[in-house]
Amino acid sequence: MQWWREAVVYRVYVRSFTDSDGDGIGDLEGIRARLGYLELLGVDALSLAPFYPSPMADHGYDVADPRDVDPVYGDLAVFDALVTDAHEHGLKIIVDLVPNHTSVEHEWFRAARTSKPGSPERERFHFRPGRGPGGQEPPNDWQSVFGGPAWTRLPDDPEWYLHLFSPAQPDLDWTNPEVWADLDKTVRFWLDRGVDGFRVDVAHGMSKPEGLPDAGGCRDDPRFDHEGVHDVHRMVRAVVDHFPGTVLVGQVDVRDDDAFARYVRPDELHVGLTYRLLECPFAADAVRDAIEDSFEAVAPTRSRPSWALADHDTVRPVTRWGGEARARAMALVTLALPGTVFLYNGEELGLPDVELPDEALQDPRWTQSGGTDRGRDGCRVPIPWEGTAPGFGFTSGEPWLPIPAQWADRLVADQLEDTASTLSVYRRALELRRCHPGFTGTDVEWFGAPQDCLAFRRSGSTLVCALNTGTVAVPLPPGDVLLSSGPLRGGLLPPDTAVWLA
Ligand code: NOJ
């Protein structure tokens, strides 16, 4: 079986994981130092957020050079050492590809900025003259995902350039063969260094409709999910296929099942990241629907669903669902399911989102929305490992985002010792998922369950998972309890709790 089909992949937001040199920003050497922890946790792979040279307008998703390491994170030698060490710990390494856009500091964009309209330098991006008198209006009505128009005009220049995200992230023009050749080079560069796969950022982006029509006149969102994008995935997949055992994961943010299924055809992505559980309320019916939808989306393909409760873009589960008990319960549901599971660093500690003061906020969403959207920094606060504030073992300096003093009760060091901690529940769940014979079958079968509860088993297996999202305790389904997300009493499954039975 391909290793990722049942794997648990741990997403590392490099900036927030561990800082080895005291500058307050996590780095690759810091990850190396924590490989023992990740092995103990029991994950199969790490997925590293971008660590490439970047002015960090979007914390590395604005890539100035996709084939190097930003000095703040280390260098290529440290990266190579990390790959070697991770493999020695039995951990695979997945890195990000960011093919939809570059940074304004990428050499291509620097050249485009100083070149004339119509020059080959500009044809790697989407430069267009403005509309209206003096070209004062953007070329079309598209909005940036981060707020405001998706176009910025260069000073003293007749042209505007397209950026679906921040103005510091100009979109590449995927009708230009040079853009294809460069991605091919990047993919080979990291594969040659021994990575085990890629997470493709904005995998539904890249291709744009001819003529860049106004969104106002289109039935669907013209910015994303264009037929041409599938050729990009086929190109990358063809390269990846030369490196057996490597996986292509994509962030496929499309809601339509048929559209989603096209991304995981046999010659495209192996795994599509889905958002159904991430966006689901804590309610048994909704959770069941989200799980069923995820299976349906991949049903016409050979791919399996993937599952995630958290990522570096979304309010953490503890805050979203109103409490650690609920987040833990959902973790047991997720980890019982067949398919690839993606964890996000800190999820295993039950970390909540942090309400940061205005002056600490760094996400471009905050400034681009004119201060109406506080952005994603709240879920990116560094990991509290041990010791005391302000660094909590994350850094010997000042963390790039302040770690709340109350996180003294969330420390990795303490949770490792406490058998009732969230970390201990995750460790035990991962161990069972790895070793217990009940984790077979590629589908789930649902049982009847009391109101506000759900129960399923993996097809052909005796492993049963039950969840109670209601307000009253219900009788446990039959079977021996393997693990519960919280205390059980008197043969009952309490509210906000999930259980595994065999
Ligand atoms: C999706 C990434 O997850 C997010 O963090 C980033 O801001 C955008 N893509 C733009 O690259």
Short description:
With 502 residues, the protein is α/β, with parallel strands linked by helices. The protein has helices at 28-33, 35-41, 76-88, 107-113, 177-192, 229-240, 257-263, 284-298, 317-320, 324-336, 364-368, 412-417, 422-435, and strands spanning 8-12, 45-48, 92-97, 127-129, 151-153, 159-162, 197-200, 247-251, 271-273, 306-308, 340-344, 444-447, 453-458, 464-468, 474-475, 481-484, 492-493, 497-501.
Task: Please explain how this structure is put together.
The chain is an alpha/beta fold and 502 residues long. It has a domain at 107-162: Oligo-1,6-glucosidase, domain 2. Helix content is 25%, strand content 15%. The strands form four sheets. The chain has an eight-stranded parallel sheet, with helices on one face. A five-stranded antiparallel sheet has the order 12-13-14-18-16, with helices on one face. The mean pLDDT is 97. It binds 1-deoxynojirimycin (NOJ).
